[in-house]
Write a structure and sequence with these properties.
This protein is an alpha/beta fold. Mean pLDDT is about 95; it is low at about 405-410. The chain contains 13 helices and 15 strands. The strands form 4 sheets. A 7-stranded mixed sheet has the order 2-10-9-8-7-3-4, sandwiched between helices. Strands 11-12-15-14 form a 4-stranded antiparallel sheet, with helices on one face. A two-stranded parallel sheet has the order 1-13. The protein has 2 domains: about 25-40 and about 290-410, Aspartate Aminotransferase, domain 1 (Alpha-Beta Complex); about 60-285, 3-Layer(aba) Sandwich (Aspartate Aminotransferase, domain 2), CATH 3.40.640.
């Protein structure tokens, strides 16, 4: 009798991936993913919010979409509209806000609603890995635009747009993370935002603005969202994963009804989790600013710890792109180091990290880059993990150089 795994393997769809590995728990030094600080989940306040809102509106969960239509829980959409008005300079009608099952669903819906195979899309040269995957899977022609310490280099954007127009292959969409860029952590200044909008209007392109991390800025609010400058050609998404909890799977999108309505029509999940929406709204309607301020202080402290640890262990052999918010530190080793060759030995030491090529359109051009998440680990774990990673890096590449005494002590 054939074994069950072989039978299913023989009949699997050709385009389907192989089975995922069985989950065996996180590594001791888990520096990947968009996870947050577990000590900052306001469990008691969330419990009270859950009790209050379930008593008041719990009957709504008897019906798909709470019987309130596909856009999501109306009080949450009103909260999102108020938050964007007060924090991002955005005027949005709650009737043009769609609650999504995480911001990734927002990306899926925008891509599905707007792109055809072969459409030309510009992405930042270092960019959110899942967005790169989604655009490529949709068959888009993806072009990288240069970044510097302040985000998109406008001159390079203008060059690409002009070249594509001259070639008869105009750009359809620009996907950008202008406020706490992922992975670099930069914030696009207002003068560049204005020039970006000017170019978008000149070349008739759609701006897809991802503000997943915009609520977590160390020095307070950044420049107004691009959506506020060009609502007629911008679709804007955000998330509650970074400000509250990733496992809640809550995001949102806003834009003209022509795009939001199409996204709502494509949303085939039976509705984003009602209790997640209700509890998040109940809590954040009372405590958003207080919670985000407290969380940001904790995250900034962890970032400072990670920067101190990296500088102590690597010195000038690691270039840091110090973020202005968020939960990631993007960095670069010397050009001769390929971080992909560090993945296996680091894993043996209990360390996992994001290699640069997975977060870049430059391929081998990002082979010396890597991304570390500083939110999940304790400060002690951050220090230990960075020290052990430096030891692995030295053993595999000779970088960072260390004296015989340091090398022996690290062993």
């Amino acid at each position: 009798m054939d074994s069950m795994p072989n039978r299913f393997a023989a009949h699997a769809a050709k385009a389907a991936p192989g089975p995922t590995g069985r989950f065996t728990g996180f590594a001791e030094y888990y520096f990947i993913g968009g996870n947050n600080d577990p000590t900052q989940i306001p469990t008691e306040l969330l419990a009270k919010a859950a009790a209050d809102v379930i008593k008041r509106d719990g009957h709504l969960i008897a019906v798909y979409n709470m019987g309130l239509g596909p856009l999501g829980y109306p009080p949450l959409r009103k909260f999102v509209a108020d938050k964007m008005a007060s924090h991002r300079g955005v005027t949005a009608d709650p009737e043009n806000i769609l609650i999504t099952t995480g911001s990734n669903q927002g990306i899926d819906l925008v891509v599905g609603a707007m792109l055809n195979p072969g459409d030309v899309v510009i992405l930042e040269e270092h960019c959110y890995a899942s967005s790169i995957t989604r655009f490529k899977k949709a068959g888009a022609t993806v072009l990288p635009v240069k970044l510097d310490d302040d985000g998109i280099v406008i001159e390079d954007l203008a060059r690409i747009l002009a070249a594509q127009k001259a070639a008869g292959q105009p750009v359809k969409m620009l996907y950008t993370i202008p406020t706490i860029q992922n992975p670099t952590g930069s914030i696009l200044p207002m003068d560049r935002r204005l020039k970006l909008v000017e170019l978008a209007r000149e070349h008739d392109i759609i701006i897809f603005e991802d503000e997943c991390y915009a609520d977590l800025i160390w020095a307070g609010g950044g420049p107004a969202a691009i959506y506020s400058l060009a609502p007629e050609r911008t679709v804007h998404i955000g998330s509650f994963s970074k400000t509250l909890a990733p496992a809640l799977r809550l995001g949102y999108a806003t834009g003209d009804w022509e795009i939001i309505g199409r996204m709502a029509a494509m949303k085939s999940d039976g509705g984003t989790g009602a209790l997640d929406q209700m509890v998040t709204c109940e809590f954040f309607s009372k405590y958003f600013d207080q919670h985000v301020e407290s969380l940001s202080k904790v995250l900034k402290d962890k970032l400072d710890t990670m920067i101190e640890a990296v500088e102590a262990e690597f010195g000038t052999h690691m270039q840091l792109f110090k973020p202005k918010g968020g939960i990631f530190l993007w960095m670069k080793l010397p050009d001769n180091v390929d971080v992909r060759k560090l993945i296996a030995p680091a894993a043996k030491a209990g360390i996992v990290f994001n290699p640069g090529p997975e977060w870049s359109l430059l391929g081998d051009g990002a082979k010396s880059h890597l991304r570390l998440c500083f939110a999940l680990n304790s400060k002690e774990n951050i220090r230990e993990g960075v020290a052990k990673f430096a030891k692995v890096c030295f053993e595999e590449t000779g970088i960072p150089p260390r004296s015989r005494n340091v090398s022996n002590a690290a062993g």
